[in-house]
Design brief:
Elements: H1 8-14, H2 16-24, E1 49-54, H3 56-71, E2 76-80, H4 81-86, E3 95-101, H5 107-118, E4 122-127, H6 133-137, E5 140-143, H7 156-177, H8 184-204, H9 207-214, E6 220-224, H10 228-243, E7 247-251, E8 269-272, H11 278-289, E9 295-300, H12 304-307, E10 312-316, H13 321-342
Parallel strand pairs: 1-2, 1-3, 3-4, 4-5, 6-7, 6-8, 8-9, 9-10
Helix pairs in contact: 2-7, 2-8, 3-7, 3-10, 7-8, 8-13, 9-13, 10-13
The structure holds 5-amino-5-deoxy-1-O-phosphono-D-mannitol.
């Protein structure tokens, strides 16, 4: 049933190329435009601001989309659903509230979605499960079509969420600002090529040989900027969730405002690069290396300036920077998986956690 893999998590990591194929199938035209059957051009003309509601890994996918929308001039805010349910942000009928939830059953996300519905916002869910509560209760639904995910750790649903959200981002940008984003064509082309790129990455990753050297470190920090920031947070969440190692993700700029005090030679730092904002993140790499920490750089394979500045280099296939974060995430999934495997953890069912969290 695990198709020859030791764990569902590894099976699901390997299923990402096909899952991504399904996510984008029929949703990008040959001439590089978004084609979402239920959301034709003009669907979001009236929207003035976007709120994302979600938890855990889904929150990181939402943060990813938030960064992209802001880059494109669209006001966007990713909230953790548990907080939004108690302290909701003001909405109007022009606010599009997007509940991002793999299961469609997460109690915090449903509570915050209900609050948005009651207060008159327009609501949309981006979910994996047709017929889920979120799909029934939101005004509209977009399905990510990742296929069933058994491992408690979200992997293929994260990549499919980000891919689906990239399509939503491009549609929103045209509808709200009146023009496609500058890079729209390049981003959509990169998205079409993403399944192949993920396949190549998985086939060539050296994460399994790196893992034994870093498993059991005192703590692990993950840093990044722009879309690499949510990817860093997701890398840390995945590592703590399945390996029980101490791990935190920070925006690279925040490091020097406190966390740097914890950095020692026993703190491996994973720095995520996409080809945008690299120079600034390299400055942060210098800050930690001068404290004796080892840096693992995850970056596009042609980024020689990164390779030269880090202790270990984990390359990802070259692609558009807005899409590169997805590939960096796959590399980090593999790092977490192999660290947890070295430590002999219960990878598919980590202690204390449930696949779907149905209490607030
Ligand atoms: O089903 P959802 O996407 O709403 O789930 C949200 C979180 O509980 C979930 O992503 C959790 O953080 C994962 N187990 C992380 O791998």
């Amino acid at each position: 049933e695990r198709g020859g893999y030791d764990h569902y998590m590894l099976k699901e990591i390997n299923e990402q190329p096909e899952a991504l194929e399904r996510t984008i199938n029929g949703r990008i035209t040959d001439d590089g435009r978004v084609a979402l059957a239920d959301f034709p051009p003009g669907t979001f003309d009236e929207v003035s601001e976007v709120h994302f509601l979600s938890c855990g890994t889904s929150h990181h996918a939402s943060m990813y989309a938030q960064q992209l929308l802001r880059d494109r001039g669209v006001p966007a805010y990713a909230f953790t659903a548990g907080e939004y349910a108690t302290t909701p942000a003001p909405v109007s009928e022009d606010t599009l509230v997007i509940a991002v939830t793999q299961s469609g059953e997460t109690a915090d996300t449903l509570a915050s979605l209900r609050s948005a519905n009651e207060r008159g916002a327009r609501t949309l869910t981006v979910t994996n499960v047709v017929g889920s509560t979120a799909a029934r209760e939101a005004d509209e639904a977009l399905f990510i079509r990742a296929g069933p995910e058994i491992g408690v750790a979200a992997t293929k649903t994260f990549t499919s969420q980000v891919a689906a959200l990239l399509l939503v981002v491009e549609r929103l940008t045209v509808d709200i600002t009146g023009t496609p984003s500058e890079d729209s064509e390049a981003v959509l082309t990169a998205l079409r090529e993403l399944p192949d790129a993920v396949d190549r990455l998985i086939g060539s990753s050296i994460a399994s040989s790196l893992a034994p050297r870093y498993a059991g470190s005192e703590q692990h920090f993950f840093i990044g900027r722009g879309v690499a920031y949510p990817v860093a947070c997701e890398g840390a969440l995945k590592l703590k969730e399945i390996s029980y190692e101490q791990a935190e993700g920070f925006s690279a700029g925040e490091l020097k405002h406190g966390p740097l005090a914890l950095v020692t030679p026993e703190t491996p730092i994973v720095a995520v690069f996409t080809g945008k904002h690299d120079t600034k993140t390299l400055n942060n790499v210098e800050e930690v290396r001068s404290r004796g920490a080892s840096v693992i750089g995850v970056a596009p394979e042609s980024a020689d300036h990164v390779a030269a500045a880090v202790d270990e280099f984990l390359p990802i296939p070259d692609t558009n920077p807005d899409v590169a974060g997805v590939l960096a995430n796959v590399q980090l999934q593999l790092v977490s998986y192999h660290v947890a495997n070295v430590l002999n953890r219960s990878i598919d069912k980590p202690r204390n956690l449930a696949k779907s969290v149905t209490v607030e």
